[in-house]
Specification:
26 strands; Phosphorylase Kinase, domain 1; 5-stranded antiparallel sheet; about 45% helix; alpha+beta; Transferase(Phosphotransferase), domain 1
């Protein structure tokens, strides 16, 4: 209710204007003159008509101004059309809304009402047919019982807000108006859509979340955030973001709707009506406390955070029996981390949600775009920007909402200390008084001196104690870090030890603010930071290379952007052109590294363009097609889109044979990117990227400007030593918090953070416990598995889940949960891998096979004329049942397990690499052994590897040698094309110039891919050239500590077919790493 004084009664002129507008709502000038003539003829109002005419002119000007601000798509819309004749005091027969049953009039304006959809706060929503366009629309109509000033103003505001928006994640406004006093808004109709509220209800009623639930949630909320960001960009704040106002189309696209409570920036509606907008459970603290003047787009970020929380925890963060209770909780209560309510909830999503729900708008995401970006960082398995709140922040936040309690705590503590000191001093004084009145003055002086000395001694003792504790904290930190590698594997029995470690670590981390305070106090005594020291500190700052790199990227992209806008011209740097013809291949490769689209080093594009141009001018085109490809991308890299297209067209005109397909791919890519970069959208995107790069540059610049060296007066050695100790302690604890207390972190060489291990161990305990989903899967399949493997008394394998049997080999396959998500089978029954997929282990039954090779008898088993001495003699081996990976370990899988990707060739730096499903390489034996062991896996022994490779055959390859191109990726014509000038290439072309995705070629008889070719694979055994002459028959194995060398098997894309043989067993040192050497995981059967 408003507290304003009642409005004064209308003047005679205003009353006359009202009478005219009641009869003529559109207020046309010709209608007024006719009406005025009638008034004069009747002898009334003759003294006021000129004044009424002036008032009408003002009314029309205001009406037109309002219509322009709304930007009505269907012509000028007069707000007065929404106001019933006679005003709101006496509504009268305004025109009735259709009933829910559909009876009565079925037309409103040019719409035919076809189906009632829903009743909302302001009116009804109908599915209607637009007779003008023939399209089906969603038509919102005002309820008669809600037809008052506020409702119509809200209705008008929804129209005004909707007219500003055009985004795929916002329901589109098609038009609005009124018909016989009935106001309507026509919106895009989304057939088959459900609300997010319905979705949440459905999920909550289920017994198990879908495997990809959290990724779908992150994607959905990110797209809603995109829609909100678009609305904020045109000055519209939604203010009622909630699941009921988010539609989900059948294809999964979320659409934000219902802008009836939206606030248009610079809209005066709030101050006029005293409006209190929103739905209580989804309001921000600033909405709840009615801070309208400070309300901005960040209120929508909070509300969307509430929606995300509800999706993650399947309950609202702020609940209560009354609106007062809900409001109080929004302002004072921090809801529990959703990952503590739903243990499957990824901690990264919980952290993102927590940042969106910060009480202080300044601590939330700065925009919905930043909110969406962080969600997409999670989806891309990259580090998120949000961080869990620190202990200090949590305390400050608690104190802010509990000011009395925090103040009382501090006062009580101070009072206890004061009382203790006073009592002690009083006892001492009384004792002195009793000694002798004559010596009172002397004793008093002595007591005061002793008290001062005692206080000084106590202060010194306290300082020494704190110093000792800080040194102890360094030792405790070292002890904790020394235990990290012992806390493997992350299995349920490790949970107590993992929790204990985290508790000890958190106690250390909680003292970081105290250590920083001590260091700050110490540094106040430091000498002034000289200009020379500033320059020296900057030059050795660890972030300086990053700053240099980002400045080069910014300058490069700004130059290309300005070239596209006609603000810069291209001038090539001079080159020693006499070098180009003699070594064109090498120079072309150098140019390509400077301009390729996936480059990660910027600033040398003009140099690359100069090299490619020089080769083009001096070398015949037909002999160097790849140079034209390089020239095309070089011109694109500097913003010369026309030159890029001309160069690639020239390359197409001369390309013949196998290289043509490669050039066609580059041509198609260039046509797409040049069209985009020259478009308005592309230029806007480039401008946005430049702004983001500049912002990142500024942030790094501030970091590089930090002081690193500290000098103190005098000899200063004690202060300098303490500064170094405190800095080491603070840096170590900050690193500890960012790494091992971060549930999403992993790093070389320790692998997963301790917090991540604990989360996985707890999930494993739950999912493999009674009624857990994986326990149920094993119960379902165990009998069938045992039946398929006669004599194998297999027990459920912790950390693995059955995937069923391969349709071709009949062998059972299992997902290794620590390495990714279980892949699903396609319509043909075969597993379909993507970059999120886990390692798949194949259960190989026990049995015997013939191992090794011989070159003496073509008719005998395992004949291979290329065999070497250490492949002989041929011998029979018995193996127990074991598991071996269906594929080589993919880069995405390795990075999830290890926390880093050592590969020299990745999709980010090499155009030959097709994706993150390509195999990891550059892995040493030591790293492979350690990482696999941490996750319950191991390297295969030579015997297990060879049996898996042979798959029941006794030939050098488990497939006909004329079918190499289908089964094994070796050094063939595709390699020769990718690396021009290479010799020794096989005659066929398998289409893979480098290593290929791990599932890209046909499997052998056991369903295993790439046992030969692609990348070499480490084996567990130490090298022993004579092992076959003395090896044991049952499960043979040469311990690795007997040799500095380790066996590797299978050949690679870099090697010809000689190396791709089942029996070939070369070796390298355990610390060797090669661009074509990777890993295939194995696992023994656990009892």
């Amino acid at each position: 209710m408003s507290n304003h004084d009642p409005d004064p009664p209308p003047s005679p002129q205003e009353q006359l204007l009202h009478e005219f507008l009641e009869a003529h709502p559109h207020g046309r000038a010709d209608a007024f003159e006719d009406w005025a003539a009638g008034q004069q003829a009747a002898g009334s109002a003759t003294g006021h008509l000129d004044e009424v005419r002036a008032l009408l002119a003002e009314w029309r000007a205001a009406s037109e101004l309002i219509a322009k601000s709304i930007a009505e798509p269907e012509g000028v819309w007069n707000l007065f059309d929404l106001i019933p004749a006679g005003g709101f005091a006496d509504q009268g027969p305004l025109g009735r809304l259709p009933s829910d049953s559909g009876s009565g009039d079925r037309r409103v304006s040019h719409f035919t009402l076809e189906r009632f959809i829903a009743r909302g706060g302001m009116g009804q929503v109908w599915e209607a047919l637009d007779s003008r366009s023939g399209e089906t629309v969603a038509l919102k109509l005002v309820l008669p019982e809600r037809l008052d000033d506020r409702t119509l103003a809200l209705f008008a505001r929804e129209a005004r807000a909707g007219a500003k928006l055009d985004h795929p994640n916002v329901v589109k406004l098609l038009g609005y108006g009124s018909d016989g006093g009935m106001s309507w808004i026509a919106q895009e109709f989304v057939p088959g859509a459900k609300t997010l509220k319905d979705f949440i209800a459905g999920v909550s009623s289920g017994t198990q979340l879908p495997s990809d639930y959290h990724r779908r949630v992150a994607d959905l909320v990110a797209r809603v955030a995109d829609g909100l960001h678009a609305s904020h960009g045109v000055g519209v704040i939604h203010r009622d973001v909630k699941p009921a106002n988010i539609l989900i189309a059948p294809d999964g696209t979320p659409r934000l709707t219902d802008f009836g409570l939206a606030r248009v920036v610079d809209d005066s509606f709030d101050s006029v009506t005293g409006d209190f907008a929103g739905t209580w459970a989804y309001m921000s603290p600033e909405q709840v406390t009615a801070k309208r003047m400070g309300l901005d787009h960040r209120t929508d970020i909070f509300s969307l955070g509430v929606v995300l929380y509800e999706l993650l925890a399947l309950r609202r963060p702020f609940e209560g029996d009354t609106t007062h209770q809900i409001a109080q909780r929004i302002v004072t209560y921090d809801p529990p981390d959703p990952s503590t309510i739903r243990s499957q909830c990824p901690s990264a999503l919980a952290t993102i949600c927590g940042k969106a729900l910060e009480k202080d708008p300044d601590r939330r995401y700065g925009s919905c775009a930043a909110f969406a970006d962080d969600l997409r960082e999670y989806l891309s398995d990259r580090p998120i920007a949000a961080r869990p709140p620190s202990v200090v922040h949590r305390l400050r936040r608690w104190a802010a909402v509990h000011p009395v309690a925090s103040s009382v705590t501090a006062v009580v503590t101070l009072a206890l200390i004061s009382v203790t000191v006073l009592l002690t001093e009083n006892l001492r004084t009384n004792r002195l008084l009793r000694s002798s009145n004559a010596d009172l003055a002397e004793q008093r002086d002595l007591a005061e001196a002793n008290a001062a000395a005692a206080l000084a001694a106590q202060s010194s003792a306290d300082q020494e104690r704190q110093d000792v504790l800080r040194l102890s904290a360094l030792q405790d930190l070292d002890l904790l870090l020394g235990e990290v590698d012992e806390l493997w594997p992350a299995t349920p029995e490790r949970i107590p030890a993992l929790r204990s470690w985290i508790e000890r670590a958190e106690r250390l981390v909680d003292d970081i603010p105290l250590h920083r305070l001590k260091r700050s106090e110490l540094r106040t005594r430091a000498l002034e930071w000289s200009q020379e020291q500033r320059l020296a500190d900057r030059s050795m700052h660890p972030a300086l290379p990053q700053l240099v790199a980002i400045e080069a990227e910014l300058a490069s992209k700004r130059f290309a952007y300005d070239v596209r806008r006609g603000l810069e011209s291209i001038e090539l740097p001079p080159l020693e052109e006499q070098l180009l013809p003699q070594d064109a291949d090498a120079w072309s490769e150098i140019a390509w590294t400077r301009v390729r689209p996936s480059r990660d080093v910027y600033g040398r594009e003009l140099e690359g363009l100069a090299i490619a141009s020089g080769i083009r001018e001096q070398v015949p085109v037909g002999s160097h097609i790849q140079t034209l490809r390089t020239l095309a991308w070089a011109r694109f890299s500097v913003g010369d889109d026309d030159g890029a297209l001309a160069a690639i067209e020239e390359a197409l005109a001369h390309a013949e044979g196998p290289i043509r397909a490669d050039i066609e791919n580059h041509a198609a890519g260039l046509q797409v990117v040049t069209a985009f970069m020259r478009s308005e959208e592309g230029l806007r995107s480039a401008a946005t990227e430049l702004e983001e790069l500049a912002s990142r540059r500024d942030a790094i610049e501030a970091t590089v400007g930090e002081r690193l060296t500290w000098e103190f007066p005098g000899d200063g050695r004690g202060s300098a030593w303490w500064n170094d100790q405190l800095s080491a302690l603070i840096d170590g604890l900050e690193q500890l918090e960012a790494s091992h207390l971060n549930a999403d972190a992993a790093e070389w060489p320790h692998g997963w953070s301790v917090a991540r291990r604990l989360a996985f161990a707890e999930r494993t305990a739950r999912d493999f416990g009674p009624a857990g989903p994986y326990s149920e899967a094993w119960s379902r399949d165990l009998a069938a598995i045992r039946a398929a493997y006669s004599g194998l008394e297999l027990e459920p394998q912790l950390g693995l889940v059955p995937l069923g049997a391969d349709p071709d080999s009949g062998l059972w396959e299992f997902a290794h949960l620590a390495s990714g998500l279980p892949p699903e089978r396609g319509a043909d029954g075969r597993l379909q891998l993507d970059e999120e997929s886990s390692i798949v282990l194949v259960l190989v039954p026990e049995g015997s096979f013939t191992m090794g090779a011989q070159q003496d008898d073509p008719a005998a088993s395992c004949f291979d004329p290329r065999s070497l001495a250490d492949e002989r003699p041929v011998h029979s081996v018995e193996l127990s049942a074991f598991m071996i990976a269906k594929h080589e370990t993919a880069q995405s899988q390795w990075e999830r397990l290890a926390g880093w990707n050592p590969s020299s060739r990745t999709p980010a730096n090499n155009d030959l690499i097709e994706g993150w499903l390509n195999p990891v390489e550059q892995v040493t034996w030591n790293d492979a052994y350690r990482v696999l062991l941490q996750h319950g896996l191991e390297l295969p022994t030579e015997a297990r590897w060879e049996r898996a490779c042979r798959a029941g055959t006794t030939t050098p390859t488990p497939f006909p040698e004329d079918e190499f191109a289908a089964y094994a990726n070796v050094r063939d014509q595709s390699y020769g094309r990718a690396f021009q000038g290479s010799d020794g290439c096989e005659a066929w072309d398998d289409g893979h110039g480098g290593h290929a995705p791990v599932d890209s070629m046909r499997p052998n008889g056991l369903g295993l891919h790439h046992m030969l070719g692609n990348v070499w694979e480490w084996c567990l055994d130490g090298y022993d050239g004579n092992a076959y002459r003395r090896v044991r028959r049952k499960d043979p194995f040469t311990p690795p500590d007997q040799s500095p060398y380790r066996h590797m098997r299978g050949g690679s894309y870099y090697n010809p077919t000689f190396d791709a043989r089942a029996s070939f067993r070369p070796a390298l040192t355990a610390e060797s790493s090669e661009h074509d050497l990777g890993v295939r995981a194995a696992r023994s059967i656990h009892p």
